[in-house]
Write a structure and sequence with these properties.
- The chain is an all-alpha fold.
- The protein has one domain.
- It contains 6 helices and no strands.
- Helix 1 runs antiparallel to helix 2, helix 2 packs antiparallel against helix 3 and helix 3 runs antiparallel to helix 4.
């Protein structure tokens, strides 16, 4: 994880994950935090554990982590965005501030995985120069290069 954009995206992933934990706990304890409610309480708890695994995989620069993150949040928040926009367009209900806050959180929940996936796909060093910690310390270090001296080719030993 060398690039600055990856560090920023992982920080946003963790902050959004902590916010989703707070929302899930507040809904379980029947607290009202600015009208933010989980879309589905059971699915929210499962999604919190899935996202924890995705954060670890994204830190390790695995493409499957970003794909799983995009897929899980896309399914979870995508339906809510479509329903809220449809309700706003049709003016089915009087839109309250709580529904707009949940809509903004859902939009952030879609934009963040897309940004993570684009960052993983745009990283050219991930495939072109994979890291191997067992041997890179030797091959990338100039002071360990082998120096040949004048005796290198003159070692002709007799065999008896």
């Amino acid at each position: 994880m060398k690039s600055f954009s990856t560090w920023i995206l992982v920080m946003f992933m963790v902050m959004f994950w902590i916010l989703r934990i707070i929302i899930a706990v507040a809904a379980q304890l029947k607290w009202d935090i600015a009208g933010m409610q989980p879309l589905n309480q059971q699915m929210e708890i499962v999604l919190l554990f899935v996202v924890l695994v995705c954060i670890i995989l994204v830190v390790k620069r695995k493409l499957i982590g970003g794909l799983l993150y995009l897929l899980s949040y896309g399914i979870y928040f995508g339906v809510d965005i479509a329903n809220n926009i449809q309700n706003i367009i049709n003016a089915v209900e009087t839109s309250s501030l709580d529904s707009y806050i949940n809509l903004v959180l859902s939009i952030v929940g879609i934009i963040l995985p897309i940004a993570v996936m684009l960052d993983l796909l745009a990283d050219k060093n991930r495939k072109a120069h994979p890291k191997d910690k067992k041997t890179d310390w030797f091959y990338t270090n100039e002071k360990f290069d082998r120096q040949l001296d004048e005796r290198a080719d003159k070692n002709n030993y007799r065999t008896l």
